[in-house]
Amino acid sequence: MPEYPYGQRITDLTGAKITGYDVLPDPHHGTIELITTNTSVTWHRWADQFEIDDTSEVLAQLTDQFYKGACAAFNKRMGKGTIICIGFDQEEGIYKLVEQSLMDELPYLFPLPNHTLFQVRGNLGIFLNYNETAVSIPNEILEHFTPINDSLTIAPAGVSFLIPGAHSLVLELLCIVDYITRL
């Protein structure tokens, strides 16, 4: 297996380079400014620092420590789509804040229930429930996919397989981007 620089898959996809990362132990926290909402939030588990190209837009930047001003999240438009890369932890709802700030610009972006995952592999949608309780498949998924087993509620630690409808391309692209950003 060939060795690659740290974060090479992100670089290959977006042109952005991960120039560093930091992990802060409890009780230390850093801050990140969400550019789209002019809001500051704290983090402490993980934060990547990106060097982006001229075709990308900074969504969030680190505001303290020795890497102050470094890009922590960005988007890059490619063809008819947008890649969103968030390089910091989600413990305090940061992902949801970034996601919420983008919903007006990207109406097909929607939040999944906590502890769930939705991926598209080929012509098959996979919805996973990592909760201790049952979870309903979000309506935004059901607008584009149909469960194979006709069940809309997924048991704890359960999975549902879905087949795409005629208008699932936007959601499929979103899921691919979401999957790549979680790598």
Structure explained in plain terms:
The longest helix is centred in the C-terminal third of the chain and has 13 residues, at 169-181. The radius of gyration is 17 Å and the shape is globular. The chain is built from four helices and 13 strands. It is of the alpha+beta class and 183 residues long. The strands form four sheets. A five-stranded antiparallel beta sheet has the order 3-2-5-6-7. Strand 5 and strand 6 (71-78) form a beta hairpin. It has helices at residues 8-14, 94-102, 139-142, 169-181; strands at residues 17-22, 30-34, 39-43, 47-51, 56-62, 71-78, 81-86, 116-121, 124-129, 135-136, 145-147, 153-154, 159-164. It folds into two domains: 1-107, Rossmann fold, CATH 3.40.50.880; 108-183, Immunoglobulin-like (Sandwich).
The largest beta-sheet arranges its strands as 3-2-5-6-7
Unreliable stretches, pLDDT < 50, 5 or more residues?
none
Quickly give the structural class: alpha+beta
Q: In percent, how helical is the residue content? A: 10-25%
CATH top level class name of the largest domain:
Alpha Beta
> How many beta strands in the DSSP annotation?
13
N- to C-terminal distance: 18 Å
Summed up, the domain count is: 2
CATH topology of the largest domain: Rossmann fold
Give average pLDDT, whole number: 79
The coarse silhouette is globular
CATH H-tier superfamily of the largest domain: Class I glutamine amidotransferase (GATase) domain
CATH architecture of the largest domain: 3-Layer(aba) Sandwich
Strand content: 35-45%
Count of separate DSSP helical elements: 4
Radius of gyration: 17 Å
Characterize the largest beta sheet: strand count, sense, and whether it forms a barrel: 5 strands, antiparallel
Element order: H for helix, E for strand:
HEEEEEEEHEEEHEEEH
